[in-house]
Amino acid sequence: MRWTIDDVIRSIHSPSVPQLAVPGYTGESGVRRIGLAVESMRRHTSNEGWQAMSGLCSGGYKLYGHGLDDSNVEVDSILTESNADVVVVQDKKEWDAKPKDFREERARFVGIAQLANRSDIFRVTAIRDAQHKPQYHSEAAEEMGAHAWIAFYHPRIVNHLAPYTRPNHIIRTYNTVDPSEVPDFSPDKSGAILSGAMNRKVYPLRNNLLAWHKDFPDVSCIKHPGYHRDGSNTPEYLKTISKHKVAFCTCSIYGYALRKIIEATACGCRVITDLPEDEVLPEIDGNLIRMHPTATKENVRKILAWSVLSYDPSEQKHFAEKAIQFYDYRQVGRRLACDIEKLRSEY
């Protein structure tokens, strides 16, 4: 049974949040590039948000924010100092800490609305969890006068969940890995692993796998460690999954190409996933064994048995190398910087 992006879109609600008007842009150069970043995200449970911003440094960006070499958080002062042509702003929820939030309160940028008054600056923000508080993120984009959004998942799904975005102003990028955190490939692996948050509403297939996994031979399950900024769990997570031949990497009801798909491939695992078939991941799509989100227990049993039995170390090392090379956060950052510049020059 096929599972496509159209199927995902038909199955999830699109909120009634109007598309934002196109802000004016009078700039002529994209040479001076800066990012307003949250340094503490390198110590979040999962460090992908930090990798996305720090990767831009490889594309010529300078980062500003609390805890960085330039720790300024006053937007007006940053703009004066940098004389920026392009500004990329980290997703507001990461620096707009609320009471009892695990996020760093000192990371808050002050005077972000100043950006909307600068038609000479090309303004971009990130949108990761498009389903999350669409009204809040619409207001955040309007406040800064965003010209474009960086999306980590398929643009059609992102636009469906966040209809305030403009489809032609969504810049697609991908989740990343840090090669220094990926264990060296070893053919000494066994069984399968299931990991991640277990919200049944959001991850129905993952919850089914959790209920079934004890009835399958040699399947381990690791719990989500919770959200914090006490140090990234990513390196230890990669060590754990690298010990297995197969990784279950479900995508949620939103059909997201989650980071764990890339991580598991980089760690030498075959990946069983419900990623839509037309959401094709560059370089590593051939490593994905797709199944339908409504797969039965018997379906999963057969797919799992075949995946473990036909595991080929040489093929998996090949895909691991591809994943590490293509999804290296610095390489992704360089490509993203080029894509931002392309959109800016054509705006």
Work out the number of β strands: 11
Beta percentage is 5-15%
Major sheet details: 6 strands, parallel
CATH architecture of the largest domain: 3-Layer(aba) Sandwich
Helix and strand run: HEHEHEEHEHEEHEHEHEEHHH
CATH fold-level topology of the largest domain: Rossmann fold
**Helical element count?**
11
C-alpha Rg (nearest Å): 20 Å
Average pLDDT taken over every residue: 97
Poorly predicted regions are none
Q: Per the principal axes of the C-alpha atoms, what is the gross shape?
A: globular
Structural class call reads: alpha/beta
Give the oligomeric state of the chains in this entry, treating copies of one chain as homo and distinct chains as hetero: single chain
Question: Layout of helices and strands, plus pairs?
Answer:
Layout: H1 5-11, E1 33-36, H2 48-55, E2 61-64, H3 75-82, E3 86-89, E4 122-127, H4 134-144, E5 148-151, H5 155-161, E6 170-172, E7 192-195, H6 204-212, E8 219-222, H7 234-241, E9 246-248, H8 259-266, E10 270-273, E11 288-290, H9 297-309, H10 313-326, H11 329-346
Parallel strand pairs: 1-2, 1-3, 3-4, 4-5, 5-6, 7-8, 7-9, 9-10, 10-11
Helix pairs in contact: 2-11, 8-10
